[in-house]
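Reply to dn_fold:

You asked what the input looked like. This is it:
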Amino acid sequence: MPFVQTRKEYKKYFRSGASANITTFIYQSLVQKFLLALKNNLPSMTVTDHTWPAAPYKFLTNANQELKKIFHHWRVRD
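and this is what came back:
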C-alpha cells in the first residue's frame, strides 16, 4: 500500500486530524447548549406574542430564524 493511501486511511488517528475532531465537538456542544436553552425560554402560546430569544452565536442566526418561523406557524395552527 503506498504511503499516501495509508496516510489517507489512517488520517483520523494522526494528530493533524485532532483539530477537526475538536472543532466538530465544540460546534456540536454549542448547538446542543443553544437548543436546550431555547427549550426553556420559548415564548408564550398566545398568537399575538411575537417575541423570540436571540441567537447567542452568529453561526446560529439562520437556524434561529427558521426555528422562530416554524414555531410561530405551529402556534397559529393549534
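Residues 18-40 form the longest helix (23 residues).
Hope that clears it up.
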